[in-house]
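chain and backbone:
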Amino acid sequence: MAAALAVPAAFGAADLDLMMRATATCLAAVTLAGLAAALVLLPRRTPLWWGGLASALLTAGVLAFSGWLLLIPVVLAGASGGFLTLRGTGRGAR
């Protein structure tokens, strides 16, 4: 996969700015999902919980400036959920 992206980028056939912004958007979306899980798991109103909340809000703010690139992690999440559902290994599968 890396070679498939690196070769066109090396010859100027790929827009590196767009690829970097799409990657950053996906990483921020995964970070926000992890922070949301931490807020559920951590004891409420502890200093660590407040730190997680502040981090989640800041990460959501960064994602708000991603524009249409935010569709990429949404589509990837939907595709993975659909795959797991069709394969029968998703949540609730036996």
Q: What stands out?
A: The first helix runs from residue 2 to 10. DSSP finds four helices and no strands in the chain. The chain has a mean pLDDT of 89.
